[in-house]
């Protein structure tokens, strides 16, 4: 490769409203890494949270920081210990939290954190999958262990996570209820939702009961009320609520942070004890193995990405601003110049 520099979207300080497009060095790769020419990346809620400094307690980054948490692209170099992939492979993935940076022309990632791109998806379509796909899989399959016939509530069914989680939950055999606005009811039904609640008109906690699982993507009062509908032994898993001491310990956070989160999550843990249910906060982990399982399901046309809008890389700040409005249907994609 003759190029030495690349264009990247960089965070220089917290509470920054937009990202700066800057020229920076193309990353070097380790023995277990691959270097990818990024073709497309997706916008995720964690981007805005990171930019605002809201993730600093559990995710510590040194600034300046190239943003971006998932991608689809083509391998242009492989490390000496990599044998599962080769130059020219079309891949996609979600890097570990300590190595984000997919909003760039090139990106270095551990080979264990990628999978071959589904053959029936374009790079743009594939970029919509890794973060929401792995999050949904780890919540519904790994933590909840959803079984055929079980009832699961998935909050915000028309969002990036929701549109994928509904499909996956149906593949696992669940009876799926979701919340959305009236405008998106047909979409979520088409994706497989069995019961749809217009959250503008009805509080889900007033009409649902005895659910096996609740996938909370909203936090706040929606998370608190999840315990009103959960049955004994059921699971409430949140990706937007309060992290727990268990999460802090598994994430390797220092003891004082474990104590702080233990105190901060005590109301939720109390509700879990009262309802004889389980509460967990999940921050997904990269996994090429699990992503490959999703690839197989996508190629079998059992799962599909839902994309709201595609922005050119030069308009990434516009894409982030649109994301922060909170009204996207499915995913928002940033397309890199070829």
Short description:
The protein is an alpha/beta fold and 338 residues long. 30% of the residues lie in helices and 27% in strands. The protein has helices at 45-51, 123-126, 130-143, 160-171, 185-191, 204-207, 220-226, 245-250, 255-264, 266-274, 288-299, 316-324; strands spanning 5-11, 20-25, 33-43, 65-66, 71-78, 90-93, 106-110, 114-116, 151-154, 175-180, 195-198, 211-216, 230-238, 278-281, 307-312, 331-335.
3D architecture notes:
The structure is a single chain. With 338 residues, the protein is of the alpha/beta class. It has two domains: 5-129 and 305-335, Quinone Oxidoreductase, Chain A, domain 1, CATH 3.90.180; 131-281, NAD(P)-binding Rossmann-like Domain (Rossmann fold). 30% of the residues lie in helices and 27% in strands. The protein has twelve helices and 16 strands. The protein has helices spanning 45-51, 123-126, 130-143, 160-171, 185-191, 204-207, 220-226, 245-250, 255-264, 266-274, 288-299, 316-324, and strands at 5-11, 20-25, 33-43, 65-66, 71-78, 90-93, 106-110, 114-116, 151-154, 175-180, 195-198, 211-216, 230-238, 278-281, 307-312, 331-335. The strands form three sheets. Strands 3, 5, 6, 7, 8, 15 and 16 form a seven-stranded mixed β-sheet that branches. A six-stranded parallel β-sheet has the order 11-10-9-12-13-14, with helices on both faces. The model has no long low-confidence stretch (mean pLDDT 97).
């Amino acid at each position: 490769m003759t190029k030495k520099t690349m264009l990247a979207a960089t965070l220089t300080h917290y509470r920054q409203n937009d990202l700066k497009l800057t020229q920076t060095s193309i990353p070097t790769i380790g023995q277990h890494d691959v270097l990818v020419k990024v073709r497309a990346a997706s916008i995720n809620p964690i981007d805005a949270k990171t930019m605002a400094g809201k993730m600093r307690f559990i995710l510590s980054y040194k600034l300046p920081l190239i943003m971006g948490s998932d991608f689809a692209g083509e391998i242009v170099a492989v490390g000496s210990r990599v044998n599962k992939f080769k130059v020219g492979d079309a891949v996609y993935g979600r890097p570990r939290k300590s190595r984000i940076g997919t909003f760039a022309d090139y990106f270095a990632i551990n080979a264990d954190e990628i999978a071959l791109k589904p053959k029936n998806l374009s790079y743009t379509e594939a970029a919509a999958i890794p973060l929401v796909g792995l999050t949904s899989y780890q919540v519904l399959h790994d933590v909840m262990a959803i079984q055929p016939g079980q009832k699961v509530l998935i909050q915000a069914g028309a969002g990036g996570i929701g549109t994928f989680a509904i499909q996956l939950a149906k593949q696992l055999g669940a009876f799926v209820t979701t919340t959305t606005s009236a405008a998106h009811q047909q979409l979520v039904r088409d994706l497989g939702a069995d019961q749809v609640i217009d959250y503008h008109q009805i509080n889900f906690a007033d009409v649902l009961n005895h659910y096996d699982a609740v996938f909370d993507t909203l936090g706040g009062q929606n998370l608190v009320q999840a315990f009103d509908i959960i049955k004994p032994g059921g699971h409430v898993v949140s990706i937007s609520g309060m992290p727990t001491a268990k999460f802090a310990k598994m994430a390797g956070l220092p003891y004082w942070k474990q104590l702080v989160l233990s105190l901060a999550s005590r109301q939720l843990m109390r509700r879990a004890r009262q309802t004889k249910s389980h509460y967990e906060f999940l921050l997904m982990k990269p996994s090429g193995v699990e992503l490959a399982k999703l690839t197989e399901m996508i190629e079998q046309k059992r799962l599909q990405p839902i994309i709201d809008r595609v922005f050119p890389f030069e308009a990434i700040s516009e894409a982030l601003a649109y994301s922060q409005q909170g009204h996207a249907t499915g995913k928002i994609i940033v397309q890199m110049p070829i």
